[in-house]
Design a protein that fits this description.
Blueprint (H helix, E strand, L loop, with lengths): L17 E8 L10 H16 L8 E5 L7 H8 L5 E5 L5 H14 L5 E9 L21 H4 L7 H16 L3 H16 L12 H5 L3 E3 L2 E2 L8 E10 H4 L7 E11 L17 H12 L8 E4 L4 H10 L8 H5 L17 H4 L6 H12 L33 E9 L2 E9 L1
Parallel strand pairs: 2-3, 2-4, 9-10
Antiparallel strand pairs: 1-7, 1-8, 4-7, 5-6, 8-11, 10-11
Helix pairs in contact: 1-2, 6-10
Length: 417
């Protein structure tokens, strides 16, 4: 593993000191009849079982709170967890990696020892992100007061100027971007948990109806009802838990453009916040882009995946279209992306499911359709064409790239212990 600091003082990092000890989720579905409180306890219970922990072993809780989510202190009480620290944070799809960083910080400060992070949402049945659904009467407040005045009711409307400018500046095409959906649909077809398991073609994507130019229906993520959970603790404590160690090497949390609110007022419009985060991310982790085996790049839209891979330096600026259409992001390619199918196909969780997937990849135990041997371990075939295996062979380093808006982003690099 190459060691480069990129101007970051390594004595100030927590490189490898903390670990993901457990992960869990509910099913990814539509038509939930359960509250987000029930969904949260389900996912957290699965994460605790994954780590081999009892309620008394967890004393911290963080959540991405928004829409119809339930607060941590209510969920903790339902699980029999007494908290030494909790916080519920609002703030878009960059929350996951930032919350993991906060968990590390509060443990480092001695405020608690083991933190569970969750996101619970009935994102299809109850409050849909665009403001529609069974509970559509969501108050207009905060940044929505500005966005909705300009017709930016939904994320696609707000992000479209960035996407269109990239197409204008660099000649990026809808056909190139469609390869992101194609790759993620192949991965989802190998994933028993994925909501959409059907493989699609470039033609399927570009022939689907336009939602907001340049986004077609199949360029957009799936909406689902689900909860997800991640447990963070020190690597020292995690060694005594059930699963193989997955170390957190480095993070950046909610890095912004010079203007995060009206990001389009600071050019280039096609530049996103990850441009300012990349060197700090790799400096904190002490690795290079070339070391990364798997990426988990937030795919609210096909375009968000491409823009992040570009700005974090996996390809040159303006070459993202060529990168994602080259086959490199598919299973069997040099650096597969979103091997569970991500938000485009598995389920929408504000980035949590992609951290869960990369954790399992680093354990070399992705729960795909490969058979389980007498020892209880999966016998991965590494044949990605059959609709069964999605485990990346010899995976050692992953990068999760979180997206909130073009102006805000977070990221994390993990390694196998």
């Amino acid at each position: 593993m190459a060691q480069q600091e990129f101007g970051v003082d390594s004595s100030k990092t927590l490189r490898g000191k903390y670990a993901i000890a457990g992960v869990g989720e509910t099913t990814y579905r539509r038509g939930s009849t359960e509250s987000t409180r029930n969904l949260a306890t389900w996912a957290i219970g699965n994460a605790m079982a994954d780590a081999g922990l009892k309620p008394g072993d967890v004393d911290g809780m963080l959540s991405y709170s928004g829409n119809d989510s339930t607060m941590s202190n209510f969920v903790a009480g339902d699980l029999g967890i007494r908290l030494n620290f909790y916080m519920d944070v609002h703030g878009g799809g960059s929350s996951t990696e930032a919350l993991i960083g906060i968990a590390m910080g509060v443990i480092e400060a001695g405020m608690c020892e083991t933190v569970v992070i969750f996101r619970a949402m009935n994102g299809y049945t109850q409050i849909r992100i665009g403001g529609t659904g069974a509970r559509s009467a969501v108050p207009i407040e905060g940044d929505q007061i500005h966005h909705r005045a300009y017709g930016w009711q939904a994320a696609g409307q707000m992000f479209a100027p960035t996407f269109m400018r990239h197409m204008y500046d660099y000649g990026t095409t809808s056909e190139q971007l469609a390869h992101v959906k194609v790759a993620h649909s192949k991965h989802a077809s190998n994933n028993p948990k994925a909501y959409y398991k059907t493989r699609c073609t470039v033609e399927d994507v570009v022939n689907s109806r336009i939602i907001v130019k340049p986004l077609h229906l199949l360029d957009c993520c799936v909406e689902t009802d689900n909860a997800t959970a991640i447990i963070v603790t020190s690597a020292e404590r995690a060694r005594d838990m059930r699963q193989p160690l997955v170390h957190i090497l480095g993070l950046v949390g909610r890095v912004t453009k010079p203007r995060a609110d009206m990001h389009y007022q600071h050019g280039p419009i096609s530049r996103v916040a990850r441009y300012y985060a990349a060197d700090r991310l790799f400096g904190n982790a002490g690795v290079t882009r070339e070391d990364i085996d798997i990426t988990g790049s937030y795919d609210a839209f096909t375009f968000t995946t491409m823009l992040q891979l570009e700005e974090y330096g996996f390809c040159k600026k303006g070459e993202g279209g060529d990168y994602v259409s080259s086959g490199i992001i598919e299973l069997g390619g040099a650096r597969p992306n979103n091997t569970s199918g991500g938000h485009l196909c598995e389920g929408y969780t504000h980035g949590m499911n992609m951290v869960i997937e990369n954790t399992r990849q680093l354990r070399h135990d992705v729960d795909d359709s490969c058979p389980i041997g007498p020892d209880g371990k999966r016998r991965h075939t590494y044949d990605y064409s059959t609709g069964r295996c999605r485990q990346v062979k010899d995976a050692e380093l992953t990068a999760n790239l979180g997206w909130a808006t073009p102006g805000i982003g977070s990221a994390m690099i993990m390694t196998r212990g």
